[in-house]
Amino acid sequence: MSDKKRTTIVLFSGDYDKAMAAYIIANGAAAYDHEVTIFHTFWGLNALRKEENISVKKGCMERMFGKMMPRGADKMGLSKMNFAGFGPKMIKDVMKKHNGIPVPQLIEMAQEQDVKLVACTMPMDLLGLQQEELLDNIEYAGVAAYLADAEDGNVNLFI
Taking the CB of residue 14, how many other CB atoms lie within 10 A of it? Predict the structure, then answer.
């Protein structure tokens, strides 16, 4: 075990504002020299989806899930005040005025700071997501890998 503090975050939510919070915390912890892991599971996997449509072979149910879920962090809705998609546009405009960093850029910053981004493989299978549809330079693992990281964690969050 290293002497560095360790922060682990489970990102279960597919909401833009919750993903933003997870990535702001992750980037802050990395800036304070923590080893940081974000374990994306279920709806949190949408933050890792590529925005472009990737052609992969899928069954009917997997294609339906793929069409219903947002493609990438920038397409996720808000947890409150979504207003049929108008809420995210409003919050992004407010963020721009206050020099806030959009979630896709927070994800890039996290990768630049060596935050370990992990896609949970079990819900990937359930939702029909394939590695080609997710961002490059991420890891794929199950709950045992998360538990191994969290076991020595100084900060463990579920978002």
Answer: 22
d(CA 77, CA 82): 6
pTM for the full predicted model = 0.90
Q: Which residue's entry shows tokens 């809705």?
A: 77
119, 49 Cβ separation under 8 angstroms: no
159 residues of the chain, pLDDT tens digit each = 568 899 999 999 999 999 999 999 999 999 999 999 999 999 999 999 999 887 778 777 777 777 788 888 998 988 888 777 777 778 888 888 898 899 999 999 999 999 999 999 999 999 999 999 999 999 999 999 999 999 989 999 999
CB-CB contact of 50 with 133 (8 Å)? yes
**What is the rounded CA–CA span in Å between residue 94 and residue 130?**
34
The C-alpha atoms of residue 51 and residue 136 are separated, in whole angstroms, by 12
Please state, in angstroms and as integers, the Cα–Cα distance from residue 134 to each residue in 48, 119, 137, 138, following that order: 5, 9, 9, 8
C-alpha to C-alpha distance for 40 and 156, rounded to whole angstroms = 14
Q: What DSSP state is assigned to residue 152?
A: T
- Give me the numbers of helices (H) and strands (E) for the chain, helices first please: 6, 5
